[in-house]
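seq as requested:
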Amino acid sequence: MTAVSRLSVNVNAIAVLRNRRDLPWPSVTGMAAIAMEAGAKGITIHPRPDQRHIRTSDVFDLAELMEDRFPNKELCLEGYPSPEFMKLVEEARPDQVLFVPDDPGQSTSDHGWQFDADTSELQDAIAQAKDWAVSVALFCDPDPEAARQAARIGAERIEIYTGPYGACYGAPDRAAKELARIGETADTAKSLGLGVHAGHDLTVDNIPALVRRAPFIREMSIGHGFTADALIYGFAESVNRFRTSMGER
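struct tokens:
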């Protein structure tokens, strides 16, 4: 029997390509459907304030797609918990929200929450999302203390930032050290009852070692690496390739 997928395909890059022209293609919902039909667990999107890739309309189009055609898949909405973003979460009601500490002008998420700062606003956002029956994950650096702090303020899941690990291609010694940090963080999160996710710069080459170290990771959110792979192999086949790298096929 085919294993349950942990692959969530981030389609931000599809939106970037579409937005280069005033045309409806490539279709964000169309490519998302291909990924889920091929076996992806769900879709991740990060609607930024300037709408430079995912637009507000995409959020609702994808929410409708999930409800109509893929009720057993998961939509993850990623963003900074500003009032505007929280309004979008309330209206779209995704399956999951991933709160990230991004500045509006940031090109990509490149660090986790700094929990030694004031977290009252974050606690309020977590409580709001839970009131709307939306599961809450926090973006965390690979640091066991970050997992402990995420649990303390009410998160249900964490997504471990794997960018430093992904940047170690061609440097196996550094990769092993970064993988150890991720593993320690994952172990701590699991011991606290948190769901464990991972994301950033994951590829078919570096995923197998991560899965061996932390086989209980329940979701990997992959956008850039997946899209680069899909330019060569096609969207559906890249789902197969990434799921194979996760030991699911």
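Residues 209 and 238 are 19 Å apart (CA to CA).
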